[in-house]
Amino acid sequence: MQVLVLGAGQLARMMALAAAPLNIKTIAFDVNSEAIVEPLTQTKLGQGLEFAIEQADVITAEFEHVPHPVLDACQASGKLLPSAEAIKTGGDRRIEKALLDRAQVANAKYALIRNQDDFKAAIEYVGLPMVLKSTLGGYDGKGQWRLTSTQQVETTWLEMEACISAQDSQAIIAEEFVAFDREVSLVGARNSKGEIVVYPLAENVHTNGVLSLSTAIEDKALQGQAKQMFTAVAECLDYVGVLALEFFDVQGKLMVNEIAPRVHNSGHWTQQGAETCQFENHMRAVCGLPLGSTEMLRPTSMINILGEDCLPQTVLAMSQAHVHWYGKDKRPGRKMGHINVSGKDEADRKAQLEAITKLLDPKAYPALSQK
Ligand code: ATP
Ligand code: MG
Predict the structure, then answer these.
(1) Most buried residue, 60, 79, 192, 207, by CB count within 10 Å?
(2) What CATH number did the domain enclosing 36 receive?
(3) What does pTM read for this prediction?
(4) Are residues 234 and 141 in the same domain?
């Protein structure tokens, strides 16, 4: 079995690692160089995309910002899972918001902005404070503005206008500012028979708009709400593969912030904490294999390594810490790898997280001192 992954970053790499024991061979399409590469080494395989599409048994994606002509060519081959429609939904906040409304899942009040009149109307309708997000190309908190007072309207508009005119069919979504208690996410898988499995929720901490710490949690009431919303969204898209939903927890009621039609950073804990990791379950779902158990084996936290390319040996020496590097060149703030820290039980997980916090530079891992 050969799987072609659209995108050749760390998610494709971890899919390839999880797929190998199942005898699934993974190759990846690097959307920047337009080359077909081996996902662990980035070695160019000297194939064109057309040939790779023809040779693949299954095609999937590691992220939602894949050029539409590429998605359409893959969809036409009949091998793309999840569908081009599902992937495009994750890449355009307009379509995403329409989906959330169609699936009747709670989400922040919003308005679409294409010009200055729309912006005025959005301020009236949504109210301040508000969060403004570019509909295309946003990730890790990029392409976003916070509007808290009317004095910021002029300068914010100038920046938004530049953003709108920089890209074809770009627009801005204005969202009410949600005063959430915390952020959680649900990662799960659906296969082509419509069977669904979900992992325990993860509680997420963001630092400067980027996920920095994620911990699997057991909360029966929230888990039930999240699974119901996950099912509604996955069924609306006739989704096949791993899907993630990000939520705001507002006094025990969940609102969907956004969806990710792919394996997700907040699901990396499953590599050490669950019976089957999210990457293996994604491969199982798209290849038509039985879905694996999502049971939590060990309470686990995931720490993102942002902009750093080395760790003290003492971290590797910890028996309950596992390091996953992505093989990337160092850049400030860049997701370079992650560490999964597990415990025998919840108290032990906390103790292990405390222990690793003492080994890491607090400037590089601010979320650990905030927790
Ligand atoms: P990522 O790719 O990391 O998920 P993103 O760029 O897709 O991020 P969002 O998830 O929409 O963007 O927003 C990033 C963060 O900004 C959220 O995790 C949350 O902390 C905050 N945020 C987003 N929307 C709102 C909102 N309406 N009210 C309050 N905070 C918000
Ligand atoms: Mg997000």
Answers:
(1) 60
(2) 3.40.50.20
(3) 0.96
(4) no
Which residue ranges have their beta carbon within 6 Å of ligand 1? Answer: 108, 131, 133, 138-142, 175, 177-178, 183, 206, 209, 211, 246, 257-258
Q: Is residue 62 part of a domain?
A: yes
- What gap in Å lies between CA 138 and CA 19, rounded to an integer? 29
The CB density around residue 246, as the number of other CB atoms within 10 Å, is: 19
Q: What is the DSSP letter of 320?
A: T
> Measured between alpha carbons, how far is 243 from 259 in angstroms, rounded to an integer?
7
206 and 171 in one domain? no
Domain boundary among 176, 197, 217: 176
Q: Give a yes or no: residue 149 inside a domain.
A: yes
177 Cα nearest atom in ligand 1: 28
Predicted confidence (pLDDT) per residue in 257-314, tens digit: 999 999 999 999 999 999 999 999 999 999 999 999 999 999 999 999 999 999 999 9
Range of the domain at 172: 109-176
Asked if residue 281 and residue 246 are part of one domain, the reply reads yes
Where do the H-state alpha helices sit in the chain? 10-19, 49-55, 68-76, 84-90, 93-102, 116-126, 153-166, 220-236, 270-273, 278-286, 313-317, 346-359, 366-370
